[in-house]
Amino acid sequence: MxxxxxxxxxxxxxxxxxxxxxxxxxFRPDYEKYMPETDSFYKIYTxxxxxxxxxxxxxxxxxxxxxxxxxxxxxxxxxxxxxxQRFHWIIIGxxxxxAPDVFVTIHGDSxxxxxxxxxxxxxxxxxxxxxxxxxxxxxxxxxAVCNHLYPFICKKRASTIRWxxxxxxxxxxxxxxxxxxxCYKFHTNxxxxxxxxxxxxxxxxxxxxIDSQAEADHLVNITRMANKEDVEGSYLRGAIHLGFVKKNxxxxxxxxxxxxxxxxxxxGTNQPDGGDRENCGSMFxxxxxxxxxxxxQCFFICEREIPLLENSINLRFGDYGVVx
Length: 324
Hints:
Order of helices and strands: EEEEHEHEEEEEEEHEHEEEEEH
Largest sheet: 8 strands, mixed
Shape: elongated
Strand content: 25-35%
């Protein structure tokens, strides 16, 4: 989490820092394992989750729930997790969503096209709940109950990376705003406040914080332009989750600063009005702030700073102790 918000891209003698394509063997900092033999990046998640939650977690990262395509990849990934973890198994991206004995990958391909070394007596998926698959450290796979909790691994194929140079991340949905020096993404998949906070963090951003009228105007504009009219489901129309909450009766940004200390503190008419029932922050479509129940589903906006790469600064301009 960032401690303060930066609004500049200029350093020293009005020199503009720009970002190009990343090195080939880079996806994002937390995907530390690159395997040249698969041309893919991997990340171990030690927090156990159900199949659906593991799949969603990987998707939020811009990756996919791992499954081995062949024995070589199975061996390599097992070796990777055994280096630091002592899991006996992980949940993988194979399941039987439509018939208990027809297993397919998360891409819809038959398991017969990928690694399928079933353990002895497996699968015994005639139990209706056992529609998912685990990979054991002994190289075999078994069917498993989808709603049980398992560790898992996310995978990103290097060939699918599309770099966003202006926002310096592998996600082209973020749009750089020169006037504000930041990047933004409007999410049209409604979530509650905590889920929205988690989604922004997974994308290497954070729930948007308004600190100027110019920023408020921009968020109003991207809200107006978002393709949201046909979104179905049960959610609150007219409000957008933002990055502020009420702590000890004081409204603060997720960076910890009181809203009154920011450059924008424009509440809607008679807001806040929810008392202890509404402790999370949002804005109306017109940009005015609104308190909201933290479990309320609605749209949200993520924001991302443009990171100043210290090594690049040192390389180009010398070791400046302070950015001007």
